[in-house]
Description:
Blueprint: E1 2-4, E2 12-14, H1 21-33, E3 35-41, H2 47-58, E4 62-66, E5 70-76, E6 88-89, H3 94-103, E7 109-114, H4 125-133, E8 137-140, E9 148-152, E10 158-161, H5 167-177, E11 184-187, H6 195-202, E12 207-210, E13 213-216, E14 226-228, H7 233-245, E15 250-257, H8 264-272, E16 275-282, E17 288-294, E18 302-303, H9 315-323, E19 327-331, H10 344-354, E20 358-362, E21 365-370, E22 378-380, H11 385-397, E23 402-405, H12 417-425
Parallel strand pairs: 2-15, 3-14, 6-7, 10-11, 18-19, 22-23
Antiparallel strand pairs: 1-23, 3-5, 4-5, 7-9, 8-9, 11-13, 12-13, 15-17, 16-17, 19-21, 20-21
The structure holds shikimate-3-phosphate and phosphoenolpyruvate.
Amino acid sequence: MIRLTPWRHPLSATVTVPGDKSLTHRGILFAAVASGVSRVTGWLDAQDTRSSLRLVQQLGVEVKELTPETLVLESPGLFGLREPEDVVDCGNSGTTIRLAAGLVSAVPGLTVFTGDVSLRKRPMRRVLEPLASLGVRSLARQDGYAPFAVAGGPHQGGTVEMTVASAQVKSSLLLAGLSASDPLTVREPVASRDHTERLLAYLGVPIRVTGTTVTVEPVSRVDPLDFAVPGDPSSAAFWAALAALLPDSRLYLPHLLLNPTRTGFFQVLERMGASVRSTVVQTAPEMVGDVEILPGRLTATRVTAEDVPSLIDEIPLVALLATQAEGVTEIQGAHELRVKESDRIQVTADILSRMGAAVEPRPDGFRIEGPTRLKGAEIDAHGDHRMAMLAAVAAAIADGETVIHGAEAVAISYPGFMAQYAQNAGR
Ligand SMILES: O=C(O)C1=C[C@@H](OP(=O)(O)O)[C@@H](O)[C@H](O)C1
Ligand SMILES: C=C(OP(=O)(O)O)C(=O)O
């Protein structure tokens, strides 16, 4: 439990955020696919990425070096990975369990997956069913929840029409495509983050992307990877929201991942009235740059299904900004938030309503009327890292004290968040 009091000053700072979570997971999993010694620098060391690390170790990958900056892994390669001797516990990490389900289609024998109480309630049919259409056998609890088991072995390619826009489902299938007997095409309803496609191309795997259709060819061997992970824009979004909400702030966020499939939050922030300036310093394999945020008068906005994948994890922060914006903000097409680490539509609405905001949860989003003054409250993060950080940002602009239960969940994606928060709040 932590107690937070309002900030009485702007956020005028340079904040360096840890490495991107999605890219760190992929760096670890692709190091397992590659044959030989791979290196991932700037990696995120957090509970979720440790789940991916444990998974690849159970599959026979050796950790050669692990420092706060660098991870060096040695793998026998995709076709040398071995059946895990025990159940693979993916903790709280949806990305680990779903991507790994596709990866282990190449691993002879049985891989049994489980996770924590939250992960065991998240839908897995969305990966197991399309994998089954390629001939990958699996068995799951009723309703398709973990624990489930995947039997590796021969399977084919073909075409899969995805029903949800999900980078986890798409990536799981593309990983299974690497060990299929023929090419695999995956089509998404709306483009989700494309890190897997970019990394596969960077590794020299034959892959074609046309609009929201991706085709990958099977491989016999993949060369090792040397990959630098830039800062996580989803972690940076908490600081950007603070700067947009605290008058006279000036925030500098150096070296962030600026892949356009991830920057929807910064676009919405600008649309709502904040100033967002970015300077691109690298374009391949991923776009990277520095971002500066200045506050402005916030006005309501509309977020639609087309926008959702590019800011899926940041939508609760848009809801918070909307409580301080003039007018009615509507967020639509975000049903996916209901099946994250918590039901993020319900939990966000509960947190903001307790703090005095006018928030109406909808089946697929929110209607929020602003501006309203927020007041401190007693908040339950429901074991969800992003809900705990959302409450901390809200606490900075609320009147009175906010108590957050379950704030230790931040260690899932951003272990240093509360220390950096205290450091900037105390000035
Ligand atoms: O592929 C990824 O790294 C992720 C994809 C998204 O999930 P979905 O694929 O379920 O939308 C996102 O919410 C999650 O934090 C990370
Ligand atoms: C949804 C998230 O992660 P995952 O699906 O990997 O648990 C997240 O980090 O907000």
